[in-house]
Amino acid sequence: MRFARTPFDTLRHRSQLAREIGTVGPEDLATLGLTRAALRDVALMPAEQIARMRRMGALHGVDMHHDLDPRDQAELSLRCAHCADNGRCRRDLAAGVSDTARLDYCPNASLYAAMAEG
Description:
Elements: H1 7-22, H2 26-32, H3 36-43, H4 47-59, H5 70-81, H6 86-94, H7 109-117
């Protein structure tokens, strides 16, 4: 039997992530092109938001699971983490919007397009 995650579990998980992020070395941060604060923003993205980022990538022709440079993945994730249109994104994807022209508000749209072109 699996129990739902409680708010306490979520806080404990976030606290553990914050400690782990504190141990990431400068070389690894440089490889990703992220500051420690930006890595924290990306690491604390909700799973639902990450799923939407992957779905948005797929709609633009980008397979988020394969062949992405770590810096590109970090940039996509950071843009998504700081997106001001999360509600709109959630509603559009839930409604089945797939016309990328209608999804051009996505901060990753131009990067997805460039990646899809190769």
